[in-house]
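Box 4.2: Ligand-aware structure prediction
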Amino acid sequence: MAKMYYEVDADPSLVLGKKVLIIGYGSQGHAHALNLADSGVDVTVGLRENSPSTDKAKAAGLKVSTVAEAAKTADLIMFLSPDTVQKKIYEAEVAPQLRPGVAIAFAHGFNVRFGQIAAPADVDVIMIAPKGPGHLLRRTYQEGGGIPSLIAVEQDATGIAHSIALSYAHAIGSTKAGVLDTTFSEETETDLFGEQVVLCGGLASLVQAGFETLVEAGYQPESAYFECLHELKLIVDLLYEEGLSGMWFSVSETAEYGGLTRGPRIVTSETKTEMKKVLEEIQTGKFADEWIAENEAGQPHFNALRKQANDHPIEDVGRQLRAMMPFLSTGKPGIRDISGG
Ligand code: NAD
Ligand code: MG
C-alpha cells in the first residue's frame, strides 16, 4: 500500500503563517478559500476587476483583490481559474510579482506538466488536488469531514515544499480523509486518460452506440434511452459501493452470464490497442498541443463537436423524458462541475 497522510502527519502552522491568494472563485476556488478561511488561514481571493464572483466572495466574508495586487504580498498562490487561462494569468499578473520562497500551487497539473507555466528556480511549485468537485469539498468540510487529496512537488526551493502542500491539504480538510503523494506527471496523465477513455469519452460513445443500435433496429427511442442511459445510474451506484463483483452479484444471473460472455466482444483487444494510443498521445504531449492550439484558435472544432453531441437523438428523447422527472435534478447545484481536474 502507498503511504497515506492523515491529520497527525500535517504541520498546521505552515499554512497558518502564510498569506494565501486563491485565484478564481468557481467550483474549486470557493471551496478552497472558505475552508482555508474557516481553518484560520489569511486568504485573499484574486479576481478580474469586474468579475461576477466578486460580490459572492465578499458576501461570504472574504477579502477580494485583483490577482496582480494580491500577488505582491502573497506567500502561496493557488491557481483555481480554468486551466485554459492559467498561463495568461501567470504571465501577466503573477510572474512579475514573484519573490524567492513563494509557493505557486495547482489543483491539476496540466499547465506545469506540459510546460505552459515554468516558475523561476527560487519558487516552490506544488499541487494539492482534491479528488472531488468543489461543492463537495466545501460541504464535507462543513460537516466535519473531508475529501481525499493528492499532493505533489514539482519544484522544492524552500526544502519544505512537501510539508507546505500537506499543511494546505490539512487546512482544506483532506487529512481527515487521507492524502496521497503523486507527481505532476502521474496526476495529469491519469486524469486525462480517465476522462478521455473511461469516464467521459468512452462512456458517452458506448451509450450513444448502444442507443443507435436499438433505434436502428426499430425499437422505440424511449425504450433505448431507459435501457442505455437512464439505468446506468443504478449500475454505477453498485460499482461505487461494491466494485465490479458486487455489481455482478446484484444483477440477475441472466445479466451476469450475458454480460460476462458479450462484454469482451464489445471492448476488444482492438479497443485496448486504441486506449494505448490515446495514452501515448497524452504522454507525448500530442493531446496537450492539440488542445492548446484549439484554445488559441477560439475553440472552433470544439464548438462544432459540442453542437453535434447536443443534437444527437438520444439528447432529444432524453430531454423530453427528463422533463417529466423534475425530481432528478433538484437540489444539485454542482451537477455541472463534476468532471473538472
Ligand atoms: P471553474 O470554471 O468552476 O471556476 C473558475 C474561476 O476562475 C471562476 O470563478 C472564474 O470567474 C475565474 N476566472 C476566470 N478567468 C479569470 C481570470 N482571468 N482571473 C481571475 N479569475 C478568473 O473552475 P474549476 O472547475 O474550479 O477548476 C479550477 C481548477 O481546479 C482547474 O485547474 C481544474 O482542473 C481543477 N480541478 C477542478 C475540479 C472540479 O471539480 N471542478 C476538481 C479537481 C481539480
Ligand atoms: Mg479527474
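In the box above, the bound molecule is nicotinamide-adenine-dinucleotide. Residues 333-341 have pLDDT under 50 and may be disordered.
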